Amino acid sequence: MKVDLHNHSYFSDGVLSPSQLVGLANEAGCDLFSLTDHDTTGGVVEAQIEADRLGVKLLNGVEISAFWRNMTIHIVGLGVDINNDLLQTGLEYNQKLRKERAEKIALGLWRSGIKDALEKTQSLSKTEVLTRTHFAQMLIREGYCKDMKSVFRRYLTGKKPGGVRVEWKNIDEVINWIHSAGGKAIIAHPFRYQMTHTKIQNMLFDFKDVLGDGLEVVTATSTDEEVKLSNQWSDKYNLLSSSGSDFHGWPN
Ligand code: AMP
Ligand code: MN
Ligand code: MN
Ligand code: MN
209: Cβ–Cβ under 8 A, 6 or more apart, which residues? Predict the structure, then answer.
């Protein structure tokens, strides 16, 4: 069975429309697919219409930013009822944090001499729920940096001009939003948080302790070693295993 349960459309920081994504999944012979935009389910209705048309099995999804020990991690919610009030209230809260952060990023960039960052970034984004990727694309387009890696390092992290701390809700609360909507809560891309293996396992222990459901065992950038470790850990901490590419449609 071909499964891809982590994908982005232009409702967050992906390049393609939800229908284009479902079209690609269909061409690739994907049996089960999920659209998991950052902090929004805005693209799910369109994805479902295309999935019905093509006969693709679609699981409603979302990728929610959360805090574990004051560090940002991403929790993928799968199989959620997108009309659930608690889930949507939570997502609206995160969207508000994103709007406030976008203004602060723009202010930071302005202080370092980059004018109209918010307007420029908004004008090349199809969504109002801006991610740092949107700012990154603007900065690359304006010639401040040559690629994603350097733009995050030089402008969008830590104490850099557009580095802004966001106070996301803690994992237990985010898991509760997902569970209220009938979904499963999955820790996304465990190796992308700059944590030691011990720390990742502490996170998995805590996640399970607050009733989290699963771990993304395979993502597009996984090494064989990472897949092996994730598999061991999903067994050890009694978590479900998920698989998702984290496809955005831009070149890596
Ligand atoms: P945000 O949730 O708005 O903070 O943006 C996070 C998104 O930015 C992630 O989902 C990635 O798509 C992207 N991202 C984060 N860090 C990097 C990085 N160092 N290089 C490239 N993309 C990154
Ligand atoms: Mn992203
Ligand atoms: Mn993520
Ligand atoms: Mn993602």
Answer: none
